[in-house]
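Go through this chain.

——
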Amino acid sequence: MSSNASKAPYYYVPAPTRHPIVTSIGLAGFGFGISQWVNGSTAGMILCLAGIVWTLVSLYSWFGDAISESESGMNSVNVDVSYRWSMAWFIFSEIMFFGAFFSALFYARSIAMPWLGDIDNKLLWPDFAATWPNGGPGGLVEGFKTMGPWPIPTLNTILLLTSGLTCTWAHHAMREGHRKQVIQGLTATVLLGALFMCFQVYEYIHAYSELNLKLSSGIYGSTFFMLTGFHGFHVTMGAIMLAVVLFRTIKGHFTPENHFAFEGAAWYWHFVDVVWLGLYVVVYWM
């Protein structure tokens, strides 16, 4: 919301728009393209990348319209409440998303592994050892090494925890009307998030080239890359959100009383931090 909220109607309902259908076309192209890409289709790769570009352009236009509506004073306190509930439910859906991946890891390690190693299943897989990580029966999976917590994961943990502090500092500065401190705190947060992603890219290169750890490395490899990869995607999205908030702060869009765009991005960033702490313990230490 902007400082023009006093002029807003009781509840602003935008006119019919092309944005949902246009964005859906881009997402459909992305989904179909990536399904073909993973099966070795060059055309699938092109369609996937085109879908990403299409979606990003559509979202840029869509969010631009939403920002213009806010800055023109169309969003009342009732719209603000709707935004807060929507963001809360969105983060809840993300909790369920990561909960499914953590549950898959727990099931594989604590339920499926002992079950596959019991006396009954020894008749089917006599060479199977119920240990974690696991290479499957009969050495079907290429040998690999696991990813330990030192040094990159621990360093990334420090980076994300520090970014949570700088984000909170920026939030308090926003509420007190110290715009310069807001800009400094948000800049530090975005840079720390970008540095986190650089280290994760390096970690993936190290995993593939030196540890032979890949997505195809059994249940360990698939859960490792699914959990850390999707978290990295969320860090990227959170950093982009905060960068947009930083740009809007520089342009003077927010006031100490009305700045939910900042708060929503901050909620998301703290959620990403908490998920990483779970990943750091469960994936790298256990």
